[in-house]
Amino acid sequence: MVTKGNKKNKLKSGKKIKSKSKDPAEIEKIILKIAIEIAKHGEGALFVIGEGFHYGKLMKHKFGKINVFDKGAEKVLKGLAVIDGATVISPKGDLVEYGVLIKHTKPFVGFGTRHAAAVTASKNNNVSILASEEERKVKVFKNGKYIMQIDALQKNVEKKVPAISQILESAGAGVIGTIGAVTLAPTLGIALIPGIVVFGGSYYAIKAFLDNYVKS
Question: What pTM does this model have?
């Protein structure tokens, strides 16, 4: 394990992509790729991209400063994410904490504590990305709503991650509020592109969004 005091083994930072370091879609793209890899191997994890939510530390943070754009960061983040608790990433892509317990969570009917934590932490325009070990799926939550599901076992799904992150940012522009309360019934899911499903209570709201997305 890398520690602050061990300079020889400390993660070597690569050049930051300054033009992209504050781009939410680019940060989400990296975390989505990591989450897909984790789910594909039958492991679970929860990433939260954002700030302003309450959490408690389950362990002492032993790493120095890491940004998702650093060289070798993806491997490190993958290892940290499978530890109990959530991994928190700042809006600029910095690793804030790992192994944390999200506080003030509310039950998510039919699902476990990790899903409840994902919903709670995603409020206030944050994004939660959950890798489900049981389902081999990656689930995305934004503004307290469950908006996307990705099948980690789908062939070449990683190649669709750039499109997924762009759709996620587009959805954040107001479509989520239009869709309203999320329902978890797969039969109500509307496929965006292969491997991605938005679960929503309004078919017409989603269809309108898709029509506009295709035209753009």
Answer: 0.75
Tokens 């919903």, residue? Answer: 119
- The helix (run of H) or strand (run of E) holding residue 128 is strand 127-132
Q: How many domains does the chain have?
A: 1
Structure-token pair, residue 150? 């990705």
State the pLDDT confidence band at 191, using cuts at 50, 70 and 90.
low
CA angle 113, 116, 117 (to 5 degrees): 85
How many angstroms separate the CA atoms of 88 and 68, rounded? 11
84: domain CATH number is: 3.40.1700.10
Query: In this predicted model, what pLDDT tens digit does every residue of 79-90 receive, in sequence order?
Result: 999 988 999 999
C-alpha span between 93 and 89 (Å, rounded): 6
**Tokens, residue 96:** 């804030």
Q: Rounded to the nearest 5°, which phi and psi values hold at 184?
A: -95, 5
